[in-house]
Amino acid sequence: MIDLKKIIIGSSNFYTSYGYDRKPVGQIDVKRILNFSKKNKINKIDIATNYLADSKVYRDFDFANWKVSFNLTKEKNGNFDSEKILRHYIDLKLKNINNTKIDYFLFHSPEEFLSTWGKKVFKVLSKLKLEGKIDKIGVSVYDPAELKKIIINFKIDVVQAPFNILDQRFC
């Protein structure tokens, strides 16, 4: 039996061409998925900020009692030249989903995380963590060598890595 409390809804293909068949799900089906999830006590969602965090579906659905994961990339989300800009960006995302905290904030690109930009953003995210706006900071990785470089340079809380019967690079 599947433990529904462990399921995290991925939302990158809700309105973008992403995934297996490169077809977006569409607004009606997105609402069905979210309502089904809520009804079945599935309350975790990964909202890739570079895809849909400003989308109407996120503003229309109440995520107040959901655990939320965000991914961040310099290429898609901007340079965040100042702490003020990054704080405003995060406040806007939280407002859009009617939530007060980001449970998991992940750097989507290990290369960006290890850059000067990543170090600057990590400092701001660490401050936001101390203030209670972010619970855990981490990174998405696809190579164990990338992860090793990151854990040498940063104190992270969570790692998103591929793991399945065919891909066991991190074992």
Strand content: 15-25%
Average pLDDT metric: 81
Number of helices: 7
Category by helix and strand content: alpha/beta
Give the termini separation. 25 Å
Characterize the largest beta sheet: strand count, sense, and whether it forms a barrel. 6 strands, parallel
**Per the principal axes of the C-alpha atoms, what is the gross shape?**
globular
Oligomer: single chain
Radius of gyration: 16 Å
Question: Low-confidence runs (pLDDT<50, min 5 residues)?
Answer: none
Strand order of the largest sheet: 1-2-3-4-5-6
Could you estimate the helical fraction of the residues in percent? 25-40%
Order of helices and strands: EHEHEHHEHHEHE
The number of E-state strands comes to 6
How is this structure best described in words?
By secondary structure, the chain is of the alpha/beta class. The protein is 39% helix and 17% strand. It has helices spanning 27-39, 56-60, 74-77, 83-96, 110-114, 116-130, 144-153; strands at residues 9-10, 44-48, 67-72, 102-107, 134-140, 158-160. The protein has a six-stranded parallel sheet.
